[in-house]
Amino acid sequence: MERKSLAPGSSYFYYPRLVCVIGVRDEAKQTTNFAPVAWSTPLSSHPPLFGVCLSPATYSHHLVLATGEFTLNFLPHGEAGVAEQLGRLSGKRVDKVAQLSLALEGGEVIATPFLAVAYAAAECTLVERHQFGDQTLLVGEVLRVHVGADACDDNGVVRLDRIRPLLYLGSNRYVTTDAATVLQPSAAPG
Ligand SMILES: Cc1cc2nc3c(=O)[nH]c(=O)nc-3n(C[C@H](O)[C@H](O)[C@H](O)COP(=O)(O)O)c2cc1C
Questions:
Q1: pTM for the whole structure
Q2: Does pLDDT of 77 surpass 70?
Q3: Upstream peptide bond of 56 is cis (omega within 30 degrees of 0)
Q4: Which domains can be identified in the chain, with CATH numbers?
């Protein structure tokens, strides 16, 4: 294969990545702020831990440290425009919920609501944070998960025939998955 040698940071080779929108209460403004994050990952099953990388320059970073809790929101492909807007605006200056007319749903455990349009959402409390270069890894313990009634099959797997998850490709481009590409290889006979 002919290859190009590139400096780190000049290519989105590790994308597409699932878009995870972080929801955080802004007590001072009596609203909730939402910001998309492409750099997020599950970290542990027991206890259930989920990590999100946020730049300390974001307003959400400041809010998470202030409240100690946040929601994770996973959007369908049709909400790419909303994700892009949430990523362009800062809650420091605007109330994104009001400006984008976002519908919210209340959680069960924490005070922070989640986005009604999310096919899956989780309630988290901040348990740890680590600085890595220009990002902070904020580690949340997942206390409760809310998934659309028909979003997952009996094995808990997202039903791609019904849900088209929003993934970020980089450089303002978004993609989704195709249910026709799902493979379920059987184990090789022993
Ligand atoms: C699709 C997408 C993914 C993003 N991923 C990240 C990320 O992983 N970490 C980060 O700090 N910012 C990320 N951003 C940028 C923030 O969402 C952006 O700075 C946002 O305005 C922060 O809002 P806030 O200031 O209200 O918190 C992303 C933006 C978009 C559109």
A1: 0.97
A2: yes
A3: no
A4: 17-172 (2.30.110.10)
